Amino acid sequence: MFGRKKKERFNLEEHNPELYKQVVRQLRMVFDPEIPVNVWDLGLIYNLDIDEDGKVYARITLTAPNCPEAERIPGNIQRAIIEAEGVEEADIELVFDPPWTRDNMSTAALLALGLI
């Protein structure tokens, strides 16, 4: 649209640490059905931003571009973010650059999968 100004975004963790914790808590309840680890600890969430209207912008990835759950996981992530009190809306951007690697996983995820 013409004349529509893009809203300024802020890093959610820095801008609202309490809301950030709530969003992360919600994301830890979303699991990749093929891997018994949540999307946060898998490292599928690249960043979380928020604008002044409470809209959260999440840049996410999948473990592989041909992931069989590629249709479901972004929607599940979006619903989880919206469930955090204080979030008005969620915009999910699915990217594959940089590609996901095992290095994205938290120590808890590595332990859960017996990788360390």
Describe this structure as you would to a colleague:
With 116 residues, the protein is an alpha+beta fold. Helices cover 30% and strands 19% of the residues. Helix 4 links the parallel strand 3 and strand 4. It is globular, with a radius of gyration of 15 Å. The model has no long low-confidence stretch (mean pLDDT 93).
Task: Give the gist of this structure.
The protein is an alpha+beta fold.
Tags for this entry?
116 residues, 30% helix
Helices and strands, with pairings:
Blueprint: E1 9-11, H1 12-15, H2 17-27, H3 39-42, E2 45-51, E3 55-60, H4 73-82, E4 89-94, H5 107-112
Parallel strand pairs: 3-4
Antiparallel strand pairs: 1-2, 2-3
Helix pairs in contact: 2-4
Mean pLDDT figure: 93
Helix segment count?
A: 5
Total DSSP E strands: 4
Please give the alpha-carbon distance between the first and last residues.
50 Å
Helix content: 25-40%
Structural class: alpha+beta
Instruction: Return the string of H and E elements.
Output: EHHHEEHEH
Principal-axes geometry comes out as globular
Which stretches of 5+ consecutive residues score pLDDT under 50? Answer: none
Which strand-content bin applies to the residues? 15-25%
- Radius of gyration equals 15 Å
Enumerate the strands of the largest sheet in spatial order, edge to edge or round the barrel: 1-2-3-4
Q: How many strands, which pairing sense, and closed or not: the largest β-sheet? A: 4 strands, mixed
